What we know:
Layout: H1 15-24, E1 29-31, E2 37-41, E3 44-51, E4 57-63, E5 68-69, H2 73-86, E6 91-96, E7 100-110, H3 117-142
Amino acid sequence: MSAENTEPTLPPLSIERAAALLDAQGAKYGTDEDGDLYAAWDGNPFWFMVTGPQKAYFQVRGRWGHTVPRSELGTMLIACNEWSQQMLWPKVYVKADEDEVAIYTEHTIAWDRGVSDAQLDLQLSTSIGSSLGFFREMTKRFIPETPSAPIDMSDPARPSI
C-alpha cells in the first residue's frame, strides 16, 4: 500500500462561487470596491471575503445592527465573553471608538484543498445563522424595543483586510 501525494480534486474557493450560492438563496447583496460581497439580514450587515494565503480563506463577518454608548464597553465585553464560553461559533468581539461600541462576528475556514458547493453553503448558513442568533441575544439584552436606523454599508468600522 503506497501513500500518494494527490492534488485536491475539489474546485478552488472563489468569491464568485459564494455569490452563486447567495443567488440560489435569493439573497440581495452587493460587491464593494475590493470585490468583497456584502448583504444584510434583519438589519445586520455582513461581508463575505476570500482572503489569506493563496486566497484560500473564506470569511463571513457580521456586525450587529446596533451600537451602545462607550460607557457600556465593559458590559459588552462580558456579554461577548459569555457567548464565547458557551458557543463554538461565531467568534465575537467588540470595537470601540470615542463614543460608541460595535459588536462583530466572524467565521473563517481555510479551503486550501478546495471546497464543494455543499461545504461552502454550509459555511454560509452556519455563519449567518449563528451570527443572527448572537445578534438577537444582544438585542434582547441591551436594546429597547425601538428600532434603530439602518447601518450604512460604507461604515468606517467596516472590516478591512
